Write a sequence for this structure.
């Protein structure tokens, strides 16, 4: 057996060990699978305020663990997902929500895609209608030439 | 000519909007607190060194105070300590400490060694009070007015600039109000 194939043989084990690090961070299990699913959903859409580009589910810092504990306690106490989100946003601001909420300050952002789509449709409609008109004129000229 | 006027106009409009956005964006990493203008979150916690005494926001009503969130594990807190001592010496607004997720003995040793700028220190071992105040990294300092409203928040080490430009004018600007 060559060195290379011996290495290959260990590859699955290495992959398995490496992957272990990813799911070992948060080992919280809630008694009810529905609650557990909601817990995972919420912890993945709340921002870790210290690391900022990670969710609290993925972050190893202390504060993220504390906030996960809050999510767990509040879900167990019967709070809805929106209540948990509102609780977090009241303390840390909308910045903690990875899924932004609609507000008068960001209304233009929500409206922008529709406005741009409308603008694009208008521009393409104008281009197409102008071209069809040109096409008809060309055809007329061609017909005249053929008749002559 | 007209063909290029429209894209140029769009470009200029975009540049103006983005330019305003960049000029008005706060320092990177500093997040506006939703607490500004709202009632200070309440807590009632044991006092450092005197666990039988409690430090409570209720008792602080009726006067200005600075809530300073710190911990001995926090490097920037050491950096701002001299400034805190100056604020204490100025005797204009009392400093209330919130010792965040810390070891009591270490916190006491820290104050004994570096000097104690605080009127009182609340011990937040679980970190629950800090979460209520939306704290995400020590040190953080909140200015609370006599009505119990949070009027200003500073993230990071307190410095001379913040003290003279942000905190003092707010405290001294309303002499008759309390």
């Amino acid at each position: 057996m060559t060195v290379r194939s011996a290495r290959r043989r260990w590859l699955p084990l290495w992959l398995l060990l490496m992957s272990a690090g990813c799911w070992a961070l948060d080992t919280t299990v809630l008694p009810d699978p529905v609650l557990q699913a909601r817990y995972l959903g919420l912890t993945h859409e709340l921002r870790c305020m210290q690391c900022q580009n990670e969710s609290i589910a993925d972050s190893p810092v202390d504060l993220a663990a504390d906030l996960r504990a809050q999510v767990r306690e509040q879900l167990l106490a019967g709070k809805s997902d929106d209540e948990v989100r509102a609780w977090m946003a009241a303390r840390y601001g909308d910045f903690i929500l990875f899924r932004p909420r609609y507000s008068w300050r960001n209304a233009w952002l929500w409206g922008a895609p529709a406005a741009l789509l409308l603008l694009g449709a208008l521009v393409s409609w104008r281009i197409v209608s102008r071209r069809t008109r040109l096409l008809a004129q060309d055809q007329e000229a061609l017909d005249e030439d053929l008749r002559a | 000519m007209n063909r290029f006027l429209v894209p140029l106009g769009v470009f200029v409009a975009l540049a103006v909007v983005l330019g305003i956005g960049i000029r008005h964006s706060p320092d990177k990493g500093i997040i506006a607190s939703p607490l500004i203008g709202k009632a200070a979150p309440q807590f009632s916690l044991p006092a450092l060194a005197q666990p039988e005494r409690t430090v409570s926001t209720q008792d602080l009503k009726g006067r200005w105070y600075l809530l300073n969130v710190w911990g001995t594990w926090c490097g920037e807190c050491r950096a701002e300590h001299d400034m805190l001592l100056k604020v204490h010496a100025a005797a204009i607004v009392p400093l209330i400490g919130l010792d965040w997720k810390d070891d009591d003995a270490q916190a006491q040793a820290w104050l004994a060694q570096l000097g104690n700028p605080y009127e009182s220190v609340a011990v937040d071992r679980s970190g629950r009070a800090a979460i209520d105040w939306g704290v995400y990294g020590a040190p953080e300092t909140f200015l609370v007015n006599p009505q119990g409203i949070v009027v200003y928040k500073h993230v990071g080490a307190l410095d001379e600039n913040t003290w003279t430009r942000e905190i003092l004018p707010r405290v001294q600007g309303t002499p008759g109000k309390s």
About this structure: The two ends of chain A are 86 Å apart (CA to CA). Chain A touches chain B at residues 49-50, 52, 62-63, 66-67, 70, 89-95 (CB under 8 Å). Chain A is about 70% helix and 0% strand.
